[in-house]
Amino acid sequence: MRIPAHSVCTAIRDDIVSGVHERGSRLTEELLARRYGVSRVPVREALRTLEAEGFVVTRRHAGACVAEPTEQEAADLLEMRMLLEPLGASRAAQRRTEAHLKVLRGLVRLGQERARRGNSEDLRSLGGWFHETLAQASGSPALTSMLTQLRHKISWMYSVEAPANPVESWAEHGAIVDAVARGDAERARAVTALHTERSTAAHRLRFRTPGDRPERVRNSQHPVNMPSLRH
Rounded to two decimals, what is the model's pTM? Predict the structure, then answer.
């Protein structure tokens, strides 16, 4: 069975983001194919996609390598997120469906409950799902794709401290959903802008200079034909 290139792409991207493939390291088709249990064809296609996304660069005499972003490039990503997240919320207020609202409200309920209990690991995952759903509710595939790529890259370049007041943070999530539910685009934009600005302050670079190496997060493998793979 031929494994889709997008599944291979997801697996390689996940390992880049987590630090399994370090910045500047070579990505050879043969070794990647062996690691993920696929042929070289989907690996080649995946590397082209990851190069377009900025995770991979092609170097003369070296071939494909993990990119080495600068501090300025990392800072630009946070600035882009601060501009695009409020835009997505504004669009969501105009285009969301009842299904989107049901999911968003459910995530806020869970987030507020976990925040009161102080379960930070659950909150990190719930926050990611919340913002992913909010982006999808914008009704713009291009904007959703861009925000997803931004989240992947920011996770790669930054570690994020837990909010000092998670209950307040999830109250902001609730205010965003309230504005989206009312169809109040300006309110949704304003509340999301404030929330994004506050969360940006909790981001810490994993590296300081282009020559440094990031913190290694884990060294796991996950074959792309396993059902647990994220899409």
Answer: 0.80
